[in-house]
Amino acid sequence: MSFPAFNICKEILIDMHELSLAQNIIEMMNDAVPAEKQHRVKTIHLEAGAFSGVVPDSLAFALDCILPDSGFPKARAFIHEIPFTVYCKTCKRKRINNSGISICEECGSSEIEILSGTELILKAIELGDE
Ligand SMILES: [Zn+2]
Prior knowledge:
This protein is α+β, with helices and mostly antiparallel strands and 130 residues long. It has a domain of 90 residues: 2-Layer Sandwich (hypothetical protein PF0899 fold). The protein is built from 3 helices and 6 strands; from the N terminus they run ααβαβββββ. A 3-stranded mixed sheet has the order 2-1-6, with helices on one face. A 3-stranded antiparallel sheet has the order 4-3-5, with no helix packed on it. The longest helix has 17 residues. Bound molecules: zinc ion. Zinc ion binds next to loops.
C-alpha cells in the first residue's frame, strides 16, 4: 500500500507518531469499507483516551493530510476524547482520574482497574450519498 501524500506530510509533521497512527487507521478503514464504497466515506469517529499518548489535533491534522490521497477523498475525522476512568476495588467506585496515574485519587489504593482512557478506537464510519 502506498500513500502519495506521505512525503509531504513527513516534511510538515513534527510528530511522526500521529502520522503512523493515521496510517493504521486508514488500514482499518480499508479493511472495514469495500473499495467501491470508499469514496462515499463522509465521517469517521475516533475515540482517543486522555492517556492514550495521542495528541488529537496532531492526529486530526495527519488524517486530513493523508485521507484525500488514500482513497477517502471526502472523509473528515472527528476525534472524541475519552477520560481516564478507573474502578477502585477498595472504594468500590468508578471515577475519572485526571492524573493518569494508576492509583485511586480518593484513597490512594493501587487496587484499581482501568476502565477507559488508554485506547485509540475507530468507533464509527459514516457513508454519505454517491
Ligand atoms: Zn479508592
